Amino acid sequence: MSYVALIFLPLFGSLFIYLPTRNLGGTKYITLALFIFMFSQMIALFTALPEHGYMMLGEYLPVTKFDFILTLQVDRLSVIMLLLSSVLLILVTLASWNVEKKPAAYFSLLIFFSGAIFGVFLSTNLLWFFIFWELTLIPMLFLVGIWGAEGRIYAAIKFFLYTHIASMLILLAFFLMYKESGTFDMTLIKESMLSTPVLIYFLLFIGFAVKMPLFPFHTWLPDAHVQAPAPVSALLAGVLLKMGAYGMIRLVLLLLPETSQKYAWILLTLGLITLLFAGFMALYETHIKKMVAYSSISHMGLIAIAMSALSFDSLSAALYEMIGHALIISPLFLIAGFFHQKLHSWEMKDMGGIMQKAPYLSAIFVLAGLGALGLPGTMGFIGEISILISAIESFGAWIVVILFGSLLASAYLIWTFRRVIYGQMSAKVSATDFSMHKVEFFALVIFALLILFFGIFPSSLFEVINQAFSPYLNAGGAL
Amino acid sequence: MSAFTLLFGFAILSFAIRNRSFLKLLSLSVLGVSAYLTLHGYALPLQGFYLSDGIAFFELILFIVLSAFVLNEDENISITQTLFIGTASIALLESQTLLNFIISFEALSIISFVLVANIKNTTQASGAVKMFIAGSIATALIVLGTTFYLFEGASLNAQIGSTGTFGTIGLWIMLSGLFYKLTIVPMHTWAADSYAQIKASNAALLSGVAKTVAAIAIFQTFSPFLLQHIAFNLPILIALALITMTLGNFLALFQKRVAKILAYSSIAHAGYMLLAFVAVKSSYASTGLLYIAIAYIFMQSALFLLIGNISKDSTQLRLDDLKGFGKKDKLVAFLFTVQLFSLAGVPLLAGFLSKAVLVYAVVDVDLPIVALVTLLNSALSVAYYVWIVKHIYFDEGDSKLQSLQALPLFAQLILLGGTLYFGVFALDVFKVII
Question: Which of A432, A433, B67, B395 is the most interior residue, by most CB within 10 Å?
Fold first, then answer.
C-alpha cells in the first residue's frame, strides 16, 4: 500500500461521497472503515520505524527546479501525531453517528479532512506541507458553517480568515528559507541554510501561534469552538490545535534552535499569559462550551511553556500534554454539546443535577474534568507534573507560578461540576431525557479509558515520546 | 500551414455556416488541428513571428479553453468571435518585433470592441461604450509612445533595444496604454463597469482570455526594457502592482453583484500578474506569469461562463440570488466553489501554485515586504470569495437559478479539469520558457 494513497484517496474519494444527488445510506460506515484502516496502517508504520531518524515512504510529482516534490517521510514525532489524529478521527466519527443533517456531506468532509491531516504529518517538503496545512481549513469551514449553532457563519468565516492570514506568514517564511537554502525539504533545510534571518523565525512563530492558539492570537478559537458542532469542536481541539503545536516544535524549535533559544522568553511569556488569561476567562464563563474552549486554550498555554524550556524533557512533556489535552478536552466538548442538544441552552444555570438523570455520562464528564485539572491517576496529572519539573529545571523555582493555572482549572472545573453535574436539579434537566445513542456513548467510554490508562501507565506513552526526541538529545539534555 | 492561418481562414468561413451544431463541430475540429500544428512548431509564417516552447504550451491551453467557449456558446456569431479572438491571440503571442506586437495588440483590441458590440440592452450598451472609450485612449497612448520611441532613431521592426531618455519616456507611455488594457490602477475604472455590464461569455473572453494573452505578450516584448532600466522602473512597477491588487480586492469586498465582484477580482489579478514585471530579474518571473496566466484563463473563464448560464441576466445576478443554490444544484454549486477557491489561492487548485511561484519570484529578487503585502492581499481576497460560498451553502433560500445544459456543463468540466490539473501537476509549466 502506497502511503500517498492515504492522502489522495480521502481527498478525492470524498467527492464521490458528496456529489451523488441521492444521499448514500452507508457513508458513516465507509468513513469509520476508512479511518480504522488508516489507523491500522499507522500502527504498522510505527512498528516498522527505524530507531532514529526519518523513514522514506516515497517521492512523487517532482518539479526539481523549484524543489516542489511530494516527499513522504516519517519519524517518531510525525507517526505519533498520525496515530493521535487517526484515533481521534475514529472517535469523532463514532460521536457523529447520529448526525441527521446532510450526513453524506458531513462524513465526506471528515474524509477530506483526514486526507489533508495525513498530508500534513507525512510530508516533509515544506510546500506540500503547506498545501495540506491549508487544505485542512476547507472542511472545517463547511463543518462549522453548515452544521454549527446560531452564530456559525460568523464563526466559520472568522476562523477561516484568521488562520488563512496566519498561513500566509508561514508561506512567506518557507519561501525565505528556500531562498537561503535552495531546498524545501525540512530534513535537509537546517544544514543547508546559509543564514537564518530573524524574520523567518517571527513569521513562523506568529503563524503557528495563531493555530495553537496563544494569546493574543487566540480570539478566533472561542467563537469557532462554541459554534461548531460538538464532534467538530473535538476535532478542532484534538487535531487542528495540535497541528499548530507540531509546527511550532518541528519547524521553529527543532529547525531554528539558536533563534528559538534567543527568543524563548517570548514563547514563555505568551504561554504564561495564555495559561492565566484563558484560565480566568474560563472561571468567568457561564456558557458551558465557552468554559471548555477557554480551558482548552489555557492548556495550550501550558504546552507553550513546556516548549519554551527547549530541553529534551520539556519537549517530551509538551508532547505528552498535547496527547493528553486531545483526549481530555474532546469528551468535554462532546458532552457539553450533548447537553446543549438536549436542553437547548448553553447556560450552566439551566443545567444542574444532571448526575441524577445521566450518571454514566456525568461520570465521564467529571473524569475528563478531573483530568483537565490534573488529578493524579489521569493523563492530566502526568502531563502537568512533567511540564512543571522540566520547566523548573530550565527556568528555576519561580516557574511554579504555573501551578496557579492548575489552581484556576480546579476552580472553574469544580465549580462547573457543582453547577452542571451536581447541585439541585433544574426544571429543564428534570424534564429532559438524556439517553444517548450507544455508539456515541461508546466513543466517550473509549476516551475515558484512554485518559485513565495513560494516566496510570504513563511510561507506555513516554517511552514512545522520548524516542521521538532522542535524536535531538545531546549531553546536557538541551537541544 | 500554421494555427493562425487555419483559424483565421475558418473564422471568416464561419460567417457562412448557419447550422450551429455543425459550426460547433467544425470549430472544435479546427481548434484540435490548430493545437496539433502548434505542438509541431508551426509558427505564423511571416517575418518577426516565432513560436517558443513556452508560447506553444500556452497556445495549447488557449485552444482547450476556446473549445470550452465553443461548447458553451449559444449564438453562431459568438463562436465566430471566439475564433477571431483566438486568431489575434496567436499573432500577439508569437510577435517578436515591436511592430508586430502593436499591430497584433490592436487587432485583439478591435475584436474585443466587436465582441462587446453584441448589445442586447442598455446596460450592455453602457459597458460597451465605456470599454470603447478606454480602448481609444489606450490606442492613442500607444501611438504617442511609439512616436517618442522612434524619435531616437529606433526601429519598430526589431525587438526593443537599449533606449535613451526619449525612448524610455516613449516606452513608458506605451506601457501606460497597454496597462490600460490590463486594468492596472489608475487605468482600471472602465473594466469594473464593462466586465460587469456586458454579456457574461464576452466578459469571460475579455477578462479571462484577452487579458492573459496581453499580459504574456507585454512581458515578452517589454522585459528587455524593464531589465535595462530596472532601478528606475522597479519602484513604479511595485507601486502599480500593490495598489492595483489592494484596490481591486478592497472594492470587491463591498460589491453585491457577482459579476462586479469578479470584475474587481480581475483587477486584483492584474496586480498579481504585474508582479512578474516587478521580479523580471528572477528566473521564476516568466514561469510565474505563465502559471498565473494558465490558472487565470481557466478560473475566470469558468466563472463568467457559469454565471452567464445559471442566470437569465448575469449582469444583475446578486449574491442573494445564490442563497440555497448549494442545495438546489450540488454539482454546479461545487464547480462554482472550486473555481472561486482557486481564485482565492486555495491549494491543490491552479490558483495557489500560480500565485506561489509569482510570490517566490518576488522573494527571489529580495523584496520580502512586497511578497508579504501580496500574500496579505491574497488573504484579504479570501473574504469576498468565501462570502460568495457562504451565500451558496450556508444561507437558506429558494434559489431560482437555472441548472446547466449538457454542453455548457461539459465546457465547465473541461475548465475544472484545467484548474485541478495545474493545481497538482506543476512540472509541465516549469519545463517550458516563454
Answer: B67
Q: Is A132 in Cβ contact with B427 (below 8 Å)? A: no
Q: Where in the sequence is the domain holding A468, given as residue range(s)?
A: 263-479
The C-alpha torsion from B227 through B230 and B233 to B239, rounded to 10°, is 110
Closest CA to B237 of B135, B365, B134, B378: B365
Q: Chain A partners of B409 at a C-beta cutoff of 8 Å?
A: none
Looking at the structure of chain A, the number of domains it has is 1
What distance in Å separates residue B300's CA from the closest CA in chain A? 21
Among the partner residues A65, A135, A161, nearest to B347 by beta-carbon distance = A135
Q: Which residue has the cell 516549469?
A: B430
Contacts of A160 in chain B (CB under 8 A): 382, 386
Environment class of residue A50 by beta-carbon count within 10 Å: exposed (0-12), middle (13-18) or buried (19+)? exposed
The enclosing H or E element of A60 equals: strand A55-63
pLDDT tens for chain B, residues 1 to 434: 889 999 999 999 999 988 889 999 999 999 999 999 999 988 888 888 999 999 999 999 999 999 999 999 888 889 999 999 999 999 999 999 999 999 999 999 998 888 877 777 787 788 788 888 888 899 999 999 999 988 877 888 888 877 788 889 999 999 999 998 889 988 888 888 888 888 888 889 998 999 999 999 999 999 999 998 898 899 999 999 999 999 999 999 999 999 999 999 999 999 999 999 999 999 999 999 999 999 999 999 999 999 999 988 877 889 999 998 988 888 999 999 999 999 999 999 999 999 999 999 999 999 999 999 999 999 999 999 999 999 999 888 888 888 888 999 999 999 999 999 999 988 888 888 77
**Chain-chain contact of B375 with A132 (C-beta, under 8 angstroms):** no
User: Quick check: is A450 in a domain?
Assistant: yes
- In this predicted complex, what is the ipTM? 0.93
**How many whole angstroms separate alpha carbon A285 and alpha carbon A336?**
14
Interchain pair A18, B347: CB under 8 A: no
| Residue A91 covered by a domain | no
Kindly identify which residue of chain B lies nearest to residue A133, measuring between CA atoms. Answer: B347
Answer whether residue A235 is part of any domain.
no
Beta-carbon separation of A65 and B430 below 8 A? yes
Tell me how crowded residue A198 is: count the other CB atoms within 10 A of its CB: 12
Q: Do residue A66 and residue B284 have CB atoms under 8 angstroms apart? A: yes
